[in-house]
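Recall that a protein's primary structure is simply its ordered list of amino acids. Everything else, from secondary elements to tertiary packing, is in principle encoded there. The following example makes that idea concrete.
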Amino acid sequence: MKVKTILVSQPEPKLENSPYAKLIEKEKLTVDFRPFIHVEGVDSKTVRQQKIDLSKFTAIILTSRNAVDHYFRLAEEMRFKVPDTMKYFCQSEAVAFYLQKYVVYRKRKIYVGKRLFSDLAPLLKKHKTETYLLPSSDVLKPDVPKTLDELGVNWTRGIFYKTVISDLSDLADVYYDILVFFSPSGIESLFTNFPDFKQNNTRIAAFGNTTIKAAEEKGLVVNIKAPTPETPSMTMALQKYLSEVNK
């Protein structure tokens, strides 16, 4: 069956020439973007209940842009002036680059991993004497605490924001040929909003093993999987599928 409509369960990319824009133009598709989940920050009272005193930490581990935003938001809320001596350990270049929104980059001690959290391990190991704070969501990938515990570093997790299921009730009578998911939370949101969801002719695209597993556990058939060696991005996986079915 040919594909004409796709719903991507994420915010629309801000780049004009994003890979999705090229896909839309090439395949003459309708692609809508709608976050199935969103992030809400917790307040300073909730952080204090976690017995977290921001002044006790010498280094921050930042795994995402959300972690950056909510750390500095709460520092301001709690009237904590982040010292110039603070060390920042960023999971990727994208997170480190985003940090510039809050700190003068060249004047700070910033350490950058390649992409995966495990890539940070050698850097954290070199700085074992630091007292680390990990600002995180209420949902945390299990490899993060596992890696930190194995390194034997002194670290504390702070839940600074929460992943919340978005209200999708306005989509109840809307049909798409493909639904695209990037996290188990997105799958959870689909079934929370539409408990009686039946896949029928809808194709499911899923990014990452945990997302694929969550979809299959809900009885969904995952037609498009990424990343693979051949299709490392979701748009490449979609393009490959479309070139087969939209001949």
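The chain is about 30% helix and 25% strand. Residues 5-36+170-245 form a domain with the Rossmann fold fold (CATH 3.40.50.10090).
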